[in-house]
Amino acid sequence: MTPPTASPDLARILHVLVDERQGVFTFDSFCEIAGVAPRAARQLLHELMRLGLLCPLRPDVAADTFQLLPHRLGLDPRRLAPPYLLVPRLVGEGPYFVSHASAMEIHGMTTWQRPIVYVCQPQFMHHRLVAGTFFHVVTCRPAHWFGAIEHAVDRFARVWVSDLERTILDGLRQPKYVGGVAQVVVGFQIRRADVDIDRLVGYALRLGLSTLQRRLGYLLEWCRVDAPAALARLRASIPPRASYLPLDPTLPRRGPCCPRWRLHLNTQLTSIEGTARLSRAQVPELPR
């Protein structure tokens, strides 16, 4: 991993940065890791940049912040810090939380990684490409600003992320940001034992979106969740003559209808059998 021209001090610092997954770090955290005074730290950083092992981020993105270049170190990028660590520096002092597919990754609801970081903010902000990662900002209405928790990434950094229940609902509300409704079902099954169903339904009713409530009701029934009171609350929120809406808006609107939830079943969830420990015995037939 260490280039032959690096001094013993630089080699030690690089090993510590990689072992602690500090792919992106501030000048202050580098001083702490290196255990040197600021002036000596500047000299070490200059030497690492001369060797092509790290680069500074643009000041308008994150001041006094640096990124290791894994390809120059011969490393798998997954060994270093996840890119969502950059989010607090991108948004500054404003409120935010990591959401959608990125939150699913943090909560262990998926086994794949996307080269996109999704962030919710209450005000509009342009999407940005930073250090090879695309940061997609989803604007969230103030009335919908709830369901976020603080997540400790390591001993240096913490980020705000949507909690488990809010992550599921955001995926059902905007499936295009998670890879489709089927991915939400898989994520739900992976973390099923940890999901608070009452909180999940309470959040859905608080968001007040009929489409979301119908998809959630269908998901809970499809996964055979034993929560009759919660399902009754969702059913009561659906107008009796509501128009049929697609289960997955990212797919063409075709397939059978589900009168109970007023949905077009345009995605066959049976295709995810075998994923997330689903078996034939656990999967009910789709309602007709």
Q: Would you spell out the secondary-structure blueprint of this structure?
A:
Layout: H1 8-19, E1 24-26, H2 27-34, H3 38-50, E2 54-56, E3 65-68, H4 70-73, H5 87-91, E4 97-98, H6 100-106, E5 116-121, E6 128-130, E7 133-139, E8 148-152, E9 158-162, H7 164-173, H8 181-190, H9 197-207, H10 210-222, H11 228-236, E10 245-246, E11 257-258, E12 263-264
Parallel strand pairs: 5-7, 10-12
Antiparallel strand pairs: 1-3, 2-3, 4-5, 6-7, 8-9, 11-12
What are the salient characteristics of this protein?
alpha+beta, Arc Repressor Mutant, subunit A, 3 domains, four-stranded mixed β-sheet, disordered C terminus
Would you mind describing this structure in some detail?
With 288 residues, this protein is of the alpha+beta class. Helix content is 35%, strand content 15%. It contains eleven helices and twelve strands. The protein has helices at 8-19, 27-34, 38-50, 70-73, 87-91, 100-106, 164-173, 181-190, 197-207, 210-222, 228-236; strands at residues 24-26, 54-56, 65-68, 97-98, 116-121, 128-130, 133-139, 148-152, 158-162, 245-246, 257-258, 263-264. The protein has a four-stranded mixed sheet. Helix 7 (164-173) packs across helix 9 and helix 9 runs parallel beside helix 11 (228-236). The longest helix has 13 residues, at 38-50.
